[in-house]
Design goal:
globular; 6-stranded mixed sheet; Deoxyribonuclease I, Chain A; alpha+beta; single chain
Length: about 300
């Protein structure tokens, strides 16, 4: 059995609670985890020094496999002095890193509402199938809207639809590997298609919110009165270290309500007995959020 430590962390592109941009400081808080789900990772933004943050994070964590999912993608190209176009994208998204190969990945944009009040931002979720010896896992790095429940509710519905549809899809490819004489398998077997799932990230919802009620089976009246195969379970009431599990600490620098639990680790039913501990790293200072850790025996 592996004592698997997973962590979700909205790194706010490396800007800490003191307002200082320091990506190595943020990443240092999660070094040592077996699975890392990051949110607010960027490329080519002035506010983060036009850095290629996925590449920088990969250099900081050289012993991890990784995949980046930029659900927000805009042009950042420029024309050089000699007239040639330098193609660049201004990207913002989520990232998965793991000690074992990420055999397949998919990026899903989440529903967005047009708004004139507040910042409406394309959000999304990145799926990775991680080839943990003996028990592969389907892992998601999730970032839901910070705007309001009106936008998060359809996003929560989309996450449940995603959970339901994966049951019938199988792996990224299946069936016969050779089509018209071409081997599409590259000599590899189909990747696993595990039912066991953990969603880590910044859900921007409180435990008393309607979108939490859509996603989490914490009361029997939800999900038609009984748990469904796609039902998710909150690891904090299962194995939290105590307290309220707040991941968005008080700060005079940010205008939203603080001292609240908005970052989560949600697991499928098959993983509930495996959850041993959940905790928040209250010492981390590399972001306006704090890392949310889950330990499981798998």
């Amino acid at each position: 059995m592996i004592q698997l430590k997973s962590v979700g962390y909205n790194i706010q592109y490396g800007v800490g609670c003191d307002g200082r941009l320091d990506l190595p400081r943020a990443i240092g808080a999660v070094a040592g985890a077996d699975i890392i789900a990051l949110q607010e990772v960027e490329r080519n933004w002035p506010k983060s020094g036009m850095a290629d943050q996925p590449a920088e994070i990969a250099r900081l964590l050289p012993d991890y496999y990784w995949v980046y999912g930029p659900f927000f993608d805009l042009d950042a190209s420029r024309r050089a002095a000699d007239g040639r176009i330098e193609n660049r994208r201004r990207q913002h998204g989520v990232m998965l890193l793991a000690r074992w190969p990420i055999r397949s990945s998919r990026l899903f944009p989440l529903p967005k509402l047009d708004t004139a009040d507040g910042l409406g931002f394309q959000m999304g979720v990145l799926e990775g199938v991680i080839d943990i010896p003996g028990r592969p896992l389907r892992v998601y790095s999730v970032h839901l809207s910070a705007l309001n429940s009106l936008e998060r509710l359809p996003q929560a519905d989309a996450l449940l639809r995603l959970r339901r549809q994966t049951a019938g899809e199988g792996p990224t490819w299946s069936g016969e590997a050779v089509l018209a004489g071409t081997d599409w398998s590259a000599g590899e077997p189909p990747p696993p298609a595990p039912a066991d799932t953990i969603m880590l990230g910044d859900f921007n919802m409180r435990p008393d919110s309607p979108e939490y009620g859509v996603l989490v089976a914490d009361r029997p009246e939800r999900h038609g009165g009984r748990p469904q195969p796609w039902t998710l379970y909150d690891t904090w009431p299962l194995a939290g270290d105590g307290g309220d599990g707040a991941t968005f600490p008080p700060s005079v620098a940010y205008p939203l309500p603080q001292g609240v639990r908005i970052d989560y680790g949600l697991v499928s039913g098959g993983l509930v007995p495996a959850v041993k501990r959940a905790w928040v790293d209250e010492r981390a200072e590399g972001s306006d959020h704090q890392p949310y850790w889950v330990e499981m025996g798998v």
